[in-house]
Amino acid sequence: MPASPSERPSHSPHSHTGAPSLQRRLGTFHLWGIAVGLVISGEYFGWSYGWATAGTLGFLITTVMVALMYAALIFSYTELTTSIPRAGGPFAYVLAAYGPVPAFIAGFASIVELVFAPPAIALAIGAYLHVQYPSITAQMAATGAYVIFMALNIAGVSIAATFELIVTIAAIVELLIFMAVVAPGFSWGHFIHDGWAGSDTFTPHAIIGIFAAVPFAIWFFLAIEGVAMTAEEARAPQRTIPMAYIAGITTLMLLAFGVMIMAGGVGNWKLLANLNDPLPQAMLSVVGPRSGYVHMLVWLGLFGLVASFHGIIMGYSRQIYAMAREGYLPALLGRVHPRFGTPWAAILVGGSVGLVAIYADQYVTIGGQPLTANIVTMSVFGALTMYVFAMGSLFRLRHTQPHLHRPWRAPGYPIIPGFALVAAVLSFMGMAISNPAAFGLYLLIMGTGVGMHLLARWQKNRATMEKDTAMH
C-alpha cells in the first residue's frame, strides 16, 4: 500500500527521538538563490554543444521545447513540494503515491542526478584555475573545491545558503554585463546564418539535430527541482517554496535565452559550438583581447560554477539523508551534526563518489568519451527518470488522496502536468537512443542499486517472519 505523507518536521533542532534534525532557517530569498544557483553554471558552459548538432535556430527550438517542459514541471512539482514538504523530495512524493520500491527507484535516480553532476563542474573549476595557475592541476583544484564546499555545507545551512545567494547574484550580474557588452556587435544575420544544423534552410536533418540537442538544452535548467530537498529547512514552505520556484524558473529562462541569442549573434557561432568557454570567446570578438571586460568575465565566470557546485552538494546530501532516515539507505547516512544541524555523513559520502570520478576520468573511457562526459549524461538520465515518477505521483495522489492539503495546485491540470510527463518520457527515450553507452551504464548503476535494495528488503522480511515464528 502507498505510504501516507508523514507529519511535518518540528521546528526544533531535535526530533521526537532526541536525535538532531534539520532546522528551518531559509526564507524566500535564500530559496530563490538556491534554485537559481543550482542551475546557473549551465548558462556559462555546456549548452553551446547544442549548436554543433542543431545550429542556432534548431537549438532555439529545442530550448523553447525544454523550457516549456521545465515550466510545466515546476508548476506541477510545486504542488507536490508544498503538499509533502519533506527533505526527500521525489522520494517522499513517490512513497506516498506508489509505495516503497517505486520510491526507492525515484530517490536513487535523483541521487544519481545530483551526485554525478558535481564532478564535471568541479573539473571545470579545476581547468579554469589550471589556466590561471599552471602549477595547480585540474584534479588538485577540483579536490580542493570539494573539500571547501563540503566543509561549508557541514558548517550550517544558514551559512551555506547565504554564500549560495551571494555567488548566485554575482553570477547573474556577470551574465547581464556580458549581454550588455556584446549587444553593440549583435546581428540577427549572424545568428540565423546556417542556423538549421549548418544550413540556411529547414531540412529533415535539422529535425534530427533538434532532438539530438535535447540534453544540452536540459543543461540550462537541470537540477532546479533540487530546492525541494530543503523543504524541511524552509520557513513556511507552503508559501516560500512556490514563490522561489516561480521566480527561479523565470530568472533562468530569461538568462538562458538572453545569453544564447546574444552569444550566437556576435560573429561566427560555429567557432563557439564546441567550446567550454563560449561567453569569453564571444566577448573577445566584440571588444578584443585587451579589454578589461574579458578578464572580468573569465574571473567572475567562476561564480556560476561555484554556485551550482555548492548548491548541488546541498541537494544530494538532503536526498541521501532523507532516504537513510526512512531506512532505504544505511542509517549512518541519516546522521545530522549535533551542533550545526546538517547531514554531514551524506555530504561526505556523496562527495567521496565525486572525488573518485574526478581521478578516474583520465583512465576511464566509455563510448569514446571520457568518464565525466558520460556521468553528465547519466545525471540527465537520472533527472528525467525522477521527473517521470514525480509527475506520475501527482496524478496518482490526485486520485487516491483527493483531500490531501494542497496549498498550491498545479495550474491547467491535467494538461500542463500531462505535458511535463510526456515531454520527460520522450526526452528520456531520445537520449537513450542517442547515447547507448551511457544509457547502458546508467541501467547498470540503477539495476545494482535497486537489486541491493530488494535483497535488503527480502532479508529484513525474512528475519521478521522468522522472529514471529519463533515467538509463536
TrEMBL record:
On whether Flavoprotein is a keyword of this UniProt record, the answer is no
Any one Pfam family match given in the protein's UniProt record, by short name: AA_permease_2
The alphabetized UniProt keywords are:
Cell membrane, Membrane, Transmembrane, Transmembrane helix
Where does this polypeptide localize? Cell membrane
* Membrane topology, record value: Multi-pass membrane protein
Task: Report the PANTHER family cross-referenced here.
Answer: AMINO ACID TRANSPORTER-RELATED, MEMBRANE PROTEIN
Protein name, UniProt field:
Ethanolamine transporter
